[in-house]
Write a structure and sequence with these properties.
mainly beta; 0% helix; globular
């Protein structure tokens, strides 16, 4: 069974940092684009960041550019999201996603994690 398991969420004060991890099990995603989405209470799920299979190409939504960094270690089948200078508006459930049909673009993910809560207090 294919699983994406997120970890690293929690409660942090504004201006603080967190690093989310997403570990894939059941099959390798080393040739797949992967990324992160988030969903705040009462809002739709939104794209946050994505990374190509090699790590060469990364993409970010405008609101996190310069603060968040996505990376991956294919040998560990793991993707990371380093979040710095966190703001209360970053509060959301963060979901890991993978697209088995694409090595470069996350597009419409084929696999999702269960989500991890990130809460930023002011």
């Amino acid at each position: 069974q294919v699983q994406l398991v997120e970890s690293g969420g929690g409660l942090v004060q504004a201006g603080g940092s967190l690093r989310l991890s997403c570990a894939a099990s059941g099959r390798t995603f080393s040739s797949s684009a992967m990324g992160w989405f988030r969903q705040a209470p009462g809002k739709e799920r939104e794209f946050v960041a994505a990374i190509s299979w090699s790590g060469t190409n990364t993409y970010y939504t405008d609101s996190v550019k310069g603060r968040f960094a996505i990376s991956r270690v294919n040998a560990k089948n793991t993707v990371y999201l380093q979040m710095n200078s966190l703001k209360p508006e970053d509060t959301a459930v963060y979901y890991c996603a993978a697209n088995r049909n694409s090595a470069t673009l996350l597009g419409q993910p084929t696999h999702w994690g269960q989500g991890t809560q990130v809460t930023v207090s002011s």
